[in-house]
Design brief:
The protein has 174 residues and is mostly beta strands. It is built from two helices and 15 strands.
């Protein structure tokens, strides 16, 4: 049973330097048991192999073979890396290559996690509902085919504040 977790004292700017020095710059932090109660521990899986939290409010991880998908109504959060890249236990980048071309986000979605769609090279367009209140960093990075991000009329400034500047030219109000 885990009773403490080691954590770096300082995160440097250059990740390469950081990970080379990580074993020399650690401090002990009491373990609170939060990880034992992880919300993803008990999940529900749909017929397409997409995993949701048991209450179906969080989309945890998608099936990388999907080409199109309708997120179930009532889902509020698309979690970090759900359709995108992932980091394994050794902190090395492990890329899942999704062929996702189309996705429907229901009006219940309020948050899109960090790197949620990163590397979805086939994704060409996406409709973002008005209900979205936050979009994580890199949510659509490396989506090389992404041409259009459709947003509800009157929400341009809201979505510009949540998306990186390189995506602003792809925003279209409808």
């Amino acid at each position: 049973e885990v009773d403490k977790v080691l954590s770096p004292e300082v995160m440097e700017e250059d990740p390469k330097d950081y990970w080379e020095d990580v074993l020399w710059n650690v401090e002990e932090i009491p373990f609170t048991g939060v990880m034992e109660e992880a919300w993803w521990k008990d999940y529900w899986e749909d017929e397409f192999g997409v995993k949701y939290s048991s209450d179906r409010k969080r989309l945890l991880i998608a099936n990388e073979e999907l080409t199109s998908y309708d997120i179930i109504e009532g889902t509020e959060v698309i979690c970090d890396n759900a359709f995108g890249c992932d980091y394994d236990a050794h902190y090395y980048l492990s890329q899942r290559y999704f062929s996702l071309q189309w996705i429907h986000l229901p009006e219940s979605i309020t948050a899109i996690g960090v790197c949620a769609f990163e590397g979805c090279h086939s994704l060409q367009k996406i409709n973002l509902p008005k209900s979205i209140r936050s979009i994580g960093k890199g949510a659509f990075s490396e989506c090389s085919s992404l041409q259009s991000i459709f947003i509800p009329s009157g929400t341009l400034s809201k979505f510009k504040s949540m998306l990186s500047s390189e995506l602003h030219s792809k925003l279209y109000e409808k």
